[in-house]
Amino acid sequence: MTQEFEFTEELTELRTMVREFCAEVSPQSVVRETMTTESGFDPALWRRLATELGVLGLAVPQSFGGEGAGLVYQAVVVEELGAALVCGPVVGTVCLAMPALTALADDTIRADYLPALVNGDRIATLAAPTAGGRFSADHVAVSATRGENGWTLSGHLAQVPDATSADLLLVAAGTETGVALFAVDGDAEGVARTSLSTLDLTRRQADVTLDGAPARLLAGEDECAAACERALLVASALLATEQVGGGQRMLDETVAHVRDRLQFGQPVGAFQAVKHRCADMLVALEQARSAAYHAVWALEDGTDDPRLAVSLAQAVASESYRWISTSAIQLHGGLGFTWEGSPHLYFKRATTDALILGSAAEHIDHVAERTVDLAPTGS
Amino acid sequence: MTTTAPSAVPDIGAIEETARGVVAAHPPRAVPVTELMGAWYDAGLTWVHFPKGLGGLEAPRSLQPVVNRIMREAGGPEPRTVNTIGYGIVAGTIRRYAGPEFAARLLRPLATGEEKWCQLFSEPGAGSDLAGLATRAVRDGDDWIIDGQKVWTSLAHLSRWAVLLARTDPDAPKHKGLTYFIVDMTTPGIEVRPLRQLTGRAQFNEVFLDGVRIPDPQRFGGIGEGWIVANSTLGDERTSLGDRVPARGSGAIADAIQLWHAHPDRHTPVLREKLTRLWIRAETHRLTSDRTRVAAATQATAGPGSAITKLVGSELTQHIYEFCVDLLGPTGTLIDTYSPDAPDDESGPTAIQRKYLRSRATTLEGGTSEIQRNVIGERVLKLPQELRADKGIPWREIPR
Ligand SMILES: Cc1cc2nc3c(=O)[nH]c(=O)nc-3n(C[C@H](O)[C@H](O)[C@H](O)COP(=O)(O)OP(=O)(O)OC[C@H]3O[C@@H](n4cnc5c(N)ncnc54)[C@H](O)[C@@H]3O)c2cc1C
């Protein structure tokens, strides 16, 4: 394991490989085409990421088909996929389901599910009750019943990421004794999925209604809470690196644009109002990068309270990405408001990223509870 | 120019042991600072990457934070505070430009703080546009004669030495006609007049130079190359800031947190959110400084750059003390004294108000925030330069 913020040559090579792959296989023209299809992603491309590049299970242990390279590696990949707006179940499968399954103790369960996710054969997502981006058993909306033929689940799950195409739904459901984690097949009887029309067309969600759907018990109460919590923390940290990736791409495109665009006989980037906004975009981006990777390292090596580090990352990265993308619209002028221009794609992604795992405001509140609200040590 | 190649792979353990030996033999809390820093210098720990005999060990610079921590933990001073300008910008320039004998003469008393340094750069007509400065240096045999005026010179009243930028060729474009000197502040013809700051104190000065004679060996770099020398110095200052990464929650934000807990009666949700946002900014700023340091030490990737940390740190400090004064409420309108003789440290019953006043300097000194944004835009993001009215024309013809 490397020291915090040490981006080794290996990590740089990984980044370059993913970036080049995305540029070739998923340029913006492909993203635009894919985002208007029914499923919103291309399973063939997903499988290539999984097998050809082998970058979906970098943090999954080798014994379950992954690389066991760790979260920093996975973060670099998510950052690059975010920069290119690659369509696919990054949030559901890579950010949420894989860490949840990895966190389970039962090797049989892990071996049953993880390899197929790592090699891109199957897609999964996690539906856990949350409040402010944190696991919250109080908000559970599905109940589990044990019958003669095993467990069945009933209830309604709103806005589950990547649920339309998921082969596997990991569902936290209420039992008589608490909230436990179950596996449900996406196309099982009693599962009804309604695709939602999303602001960010590259990121899909669905409402899921379970009506006596057959389920397999994966984890009892304590373990379920721990696994969901871990998954949400990992997902939030990875999402922060995606926000950094998208922000960097928007900054690069904006800088290129204002360098080229001539008005009043000079590049608009020579005007200080424009130049200083670009400078502030870079400043915001670099703060977000520090906070995001600090969270990733904190989850990896336990050098900081992961809840604090993750909320810090989400608070900073959410506001930075959204501000960078709105600045990009502004500095692109009319082109920024045009469908053919790229800023709106990032603006919509930034808006979505800032809301799906707790808003910046909620994470600021989490930070307050862990810092400002506590009496200083030593007094 | 002296370059130092590490002669052998340095042994971190040995260097740490040397540092521990020095603080054991000269307990920082018991001996005078000059003795401590002298021993530290003689052991090569002041600038570990400097040549042996000049306060260094020819070791990698990344080891500096390691030995500085040993000094700090033993109760020693933060080295920069001993001689701010000397450590921050002068030492590296001396090493590069002074020649070994002269460097040996200058560096030890600089390191111990016995000879303080100041920077005679800014002038009434040249602040942000430093390269436009007007102080003249004219050759006279083996000497140079200096005439002009400097302003806002921090610590000039306490300094034995100064670095000076002066114009040797008024007919060249502004950046090309400058030459870099060092000046003994006891030379006849130098008058230092204290200049009061908005804090009431006089930590900076006006400096008048009238027929001041400087021997040619005190010229650093070639004639007309002053701008290049000055910029190498600025680079040193930025890197030296990375020799220390403060602890989480320390510095200005600690004042705000402490104040918050001291005034529970004044808590409101709006102030709580403000404070939390400031805490978040302070922490991400700290992490970004650390990332810059790691990037510099491991060289695998380029770090975020010193202009960013300067800009963020300076604005953050101001916002933190604005918050503090808001939190104080009516008490925030009081100040204990505007006496020019008030103690140098921001202490006393209205320490917060003093720091609030002092913080207005952070976005001016060392390059204003506007200039930092220009630097980030033009040097980091490579955006086109603004049209410059004075570009390429002889300095003499620039309107002023
Ligand atoms: C506490 C303190 C200590 C100091 N210590 C020293 C010292 O020891 N030695 C020394 O040499 N100097 C010192 N200075 C001087 C300092 O470096 C200058 O004040 C600073 O560089 C700004 O120059 P100026 O004051 O002439 O302002 P100006 O350059 O006149 O600037 C006025 C305003 O115009 C803006 N501006 C100027 N040019 C541009 C531009 N191109 N684009 C956009 N905006 C622009 C500035 O940002 C500022 O807001 C010190 C200053 C302070 C406050």
UniProtKB/TrEMBL annotation, chain A:
- Cofactor field: FAD
Which superkingdom does the taxonomy of this entry point to?
Answer: Bacteria
Please name the SUPFAM superfamilies in this protein's record. Answer: Acyl-CoA dehydrogenase C-terminal domain-like, Acyl-CoA dehydrogenase NM domain-like
| Residue ranges annotated for the Acyl-CoA dehydrogenase/oxidase N-terminal domain, each copy included | 8-121
One Pfam family for this entry, by name?
A: Acyl-CoA_dh_1
Keywords in UniProt for this one?
Answer: FAD, Flavoprotein, Oxidoreductase
> Acyl-CoA dehydrogenase/oxidase C-terminal domain: from which residue to which, for each copy?
232-370
Sample GO molecular function, one term: flavin adenine dinucleotide binding
Q: Does the keyword Oxidoreductase apply?
A: yes
InterPro entries in alphabetical order: Acyl-CoA_Oxase/DH_mid-dom_sf (IPR046373), AcylCo_DH-like_C (IPR036250), AcylCo_DH/oxidase_C (IPR009075), AcylCoA_DH/ox_N (IPR013786), AcylCoA_DH/ox_N_sf (IPR037069), AcylCoA_DH/oxidase_NM_dom_sf (IPR009100)
Per the record, the similarity remark reads: Belongs to the acyl-CoA dehydrogenase family.
Q: What is this protein called?
A: Acyl-CoA dehydrogenase family protein
